[in-house]
Structure formats: C-alpha cells, structure tokens
Amino acid sequence: MRVTVTLPERTYKRVKEIARDEGGSVSSVIAELTARGLADSAPGGHPMSPRTGLPVVSVGRVITMAEAAELAAEE
C-alpha cells in the first residue's frame, strides 16, 4: 500500500543510513521498523502487573537503594 508520511529530518537520515547499510530501500526499512514497533506494542506483548493492571516492562537489572543513592550523589 502506498502511503505518504512526514518524518523528522534526523529520523529520515537514520532510515536512509540503515537502508544503505542493509542494501534495501527506505520504504522497506520503514515497513520493517513499523512492523517491529507494532509487534512490540501488541496486546499481550508485556506481562501485566496484578497490583496496578499496567504493563510491566523489563529495562535491566534491579538496583539497590544504596546504588540509587550513590548515583544520586554523583549528580
């Protein structure tokens, strides 16, 4: 399907770089990235918190209060 979209210049440049590096077209890169993004946000993609009912997203390891205090002190 043919669609016209407006992308920020920085995003468009990055998409062009990816297309060049992978030997594909800008259109194919946008289609692939869109499909990935939609798959990541599909219902059931993230476990739900039984306490809040909100999706739970894992972004790394758990840090301790001591580590958090140390990071805050560095700022």
- Give the assembly state of these chains: single chain
What is the count of structural domains? 1
Q: Compute the number of strand runs.
A: 0
What Rg is obtained from the alpha carbons, in whole angstroms? 19 Å
Give the topology string: H per helix, E per strand: HHH
Distance between the termini: 49 Å
Q: What composes the largest sheet? A: none
Helicity, in percent? Answer: 40-55%
Q: Treating each run of at least 4 consecutive H or I residues as one helix, how many helices? A: 3
Give the helix/strand class.
Answer: mainly alpha
What's the mean pLDDT score?
A: 86
GO biological process, one term: regulation of DNA-templated transcription
Pfam family, one: RHH_5
InterPro entries: Arc_rbn_hlx_hlx (IPR013321), RHH_5 (IPR012869)
Domain CopG-like ribbon-helix-helix: 2-39
Brief summary:
The protein is an all-alpha fold and 75 residues long. It has one domain (9-74).
Structural account:
The chain is mainly α. The chain has one domain (9-74). Helices cover 52% and strands 0% of the residues. The protein contains 3 helices and no strands. It has helices at residues 9-22, 26-40, 65-74. Helix 1 crosses helix 2. The termini are far apart. The mean pLDDT is 86. This is Ribbon-helix-helix protein, CopG family. One of its GO terms (biological process) is regulation of DNA-templated transcription.
